[in-house]
TrEMBL record:
Higher taxonomy: Bacteria, Bacillati, Actinomycetota, Actinomycetes, Streptosporangiales
Species of origin: Streptosporangium saharense
Protein name: aldehyde dehydrogenase (NAD(+))
EC number(s) reported in the record: 1.2.1.3
Top-level taxonomic group: Bacteria
Self-association and partners: Homotetramer.
């Protein structure tokens, strides 16, 4: 029997009223059901927000260093269960096991960082323009944060929201992707085991449309004070519009069309290695995955030769083994990837070999992909600035290649799609690296490294179509889950009016030597 999992609200399992069941399947073995997910209805979602609102004040009253110790306990529990959690991630979404272990490590790193932030939720003492008066600033929690996350990083990315939000004294309602619900449920249980009071963290398992309706109700009721969303640009726009109607600014981490510029002086073997991981790690299903290689015309052919050889040699297969690519996450992503393959035009050249789903009739060497959502990795040369393959995010194992002659041209091409998440340049010239950094619109820049990769103490986030400028990770994410409060304390015993009762020292403006 496959376990059925349900939402958890106020510490209690809650099936909700919809009765709909979603089967989360192993994308490497489509006949294997990982979990049966009882989907909640919109009222259950908004009810979870009310529960969180009722629990938040008591949690905020817990001293921040103590909240930090709770977060530290989460980290130790995740560390103790790392292999089990990573195996579940691999089984549920098809992420190669080595990558899944790295994802779990990211949770531990995030918890380790925010343990210290429990003792560093600093405000400032500010000098006043008047005597016998002191000014202070304080970070205070926003209240209730609703967090909606995608399933390509089913445990690491949620931790980027949950850990700082809870550390700062907020209560949270978390809606994970339904196709990664088992991984999310496991992570919730680890958080709960750390001693969080009931109602401080609530897990709502439902689909996106239902969550949107529940969020709309909760925002209207005033029980949600911050929304964090990781997902597509299209859905991010809708959430941004909804929050804007309630005068809220969400934290939006959206898609990317991430460029990699290869300069004439680049170490081509290193660039190929970076492009291989960035383009096809997690089967190209990261928001930071490589979209387009922009290679200088003097090295373009040599880069392509080496890159296509590396792609041909890369192993695609069972994600439990030592592979570069496993399957796509879910049937809906496979169907969407088929659409992207339809964007290949006559003026393009597919240099990587076969395309489409790996089957006995369309194998990759001896691998036939039977039973799973496996696809050939695709490299397309000759993409042009007006092509859909150049301009739009392609969530899956496909990388475009184009050329340039000057760095200014390369920067223009890199910025053209209008996304601004991650970017990369391969060069040995510091001038080129810094010129690229100053010209690129991306929130993250790598030099001689891939477009993918984050560290727990570095700001993560994008601009343009990739987000609204909010940042996750490090101290910067605290600006998403706290608000500044100013205090002025006048102990003069009289009313002192700012800008009016200010002492003034008069200079002699006519003085000359």
């Amino acid at each position: 029997m496959t376990d059925e999992i349900v939402s958890v609200i106020g510490g209690k399992q809650t099936s909700g009223a919809s009765g709909d069941v979603y089967e989360s399947v192993n994308p490497a073995r489509l006949d294997e059901v990982v979990a049966r997910v009882r989907l909640a209805d919109a009222e259950t979602f908004s009810s979870a927000c009310r529960t969180a609102a009722a629990a938040q004040a008591e949690w905020a009253a817990v001293p921040a260093p103590v909240r930090g110790r709770v977060i530290a306990s989460v980290g130790r529990l995740v560390e103790a269960n790392a292999e089990t959690l990573a195996r579940l991630v691999t089984r549920e979404i098809g992420k190669p096991y080595a990558e899944a272990l790295g994802e779990v490590r990211e949770i531990v790193d995030t918890c380790d960082f925010f343990l210290g932030e429990g003792r560093r939720l600093y405000g400032q003492t500010v000098p006043s323009e008047m005597s016998d008066k002191s000014l202070f600033t304080f970070r205070v929690p926003v209240g209730v944060a609703t967090v909606i996350t995608a399933g390509n990083f089913p445990v690491a990315v949620p931790s980027w929201y949950l850990v700082p939000a809870l550390l700062a004294g907020n209560a949270v309602v978390w809606k994970p992707a339904e196709y990664a619900a088992a991984s999310a449920h496991a992570l919730y249980r680890l958080f709960a085991a750390a001693g969080l009071p009931d109602g401080v963290l609530n897990l709502v398992l439902t689909d996106g449309a239902t969550a949107y309706r529940g969020l709309e109700t909760a925002l209207g009721e005033g029980t949600v004070h911050k929304v964090g969303f990781t997902g597509s640009t299209e859905v991010g726009r809708r959430i941004g519009e909804l929050c804007g109607r309630h005068l809220q600014s969400p934290c939006l981490e959206l898609g990317g069309k991430n460029p990699m510029v290869v300069m004439p002086d680049a170490d081509l073997d290193l660039a190929v290695e970076g492009a291989l991981f960035a383009g096809f790690g997690t089967a190209g299903q990261r928001c930071t995955s490589l979209g387009t290689v922009i290679a200088h015309e003097s090295v373009r052919e040599e880069f392509l030769t080496r890159y296509t050889r590396a792609v041909a040699d890369a192993v695609v297969g069972d994600p439990a083994g030592d592979v570069l690519c496993g399957p796509l996450l879910d049937e809906k992503f496979a169907a969407r990837f088929e659409e992207y393959l339809g964007w290949i035009e006559p003026h393009h050249t597919v240099v990587s070999g076969p395309t489409g789903r790996i089957t006995p009739d369309n194998p990759r060497g001896s691998f036939t992909g039977e039973g799973g959502l496996y696809y050939h990795p695709v490299v397309v040369d000759g993409v042009r600035p007006g092509d859909r393959l150049f301009l739009e995010e392609t969530f899956g194992p496909i990388v475009g290649v184009t050329g340039f002659t000057t760095l200014e041209e390369a920067i223009g091409l890199a910025n053209r799609p209008g996304y601004g998440l991650s970017s990369s340049i391969y060069t040995t010239d510091p001038k080129s690296a810094f010129r690229f950094r100053s010209g690129i619109g991306a929130g993250m820049v790598s030099v001689n490294n891939s477009t993918s990769g984050a560290e727990a103490h570095l700001p993560f986030g994008g601009n343009g179509k990739s987000g609204n400028g909010s940042r996750q990770s490090g101290v910067w994410v605290l600006d998403q889950f706290t608000r500044w409060q100013a205090l002025n304390w006048d102990y003069s015993g009289k009313l002192q009016k700012a800008q009016m009762d200010v002492a003034e020292i008069i200079p002699d403006p006519d003085f000359r030597l």
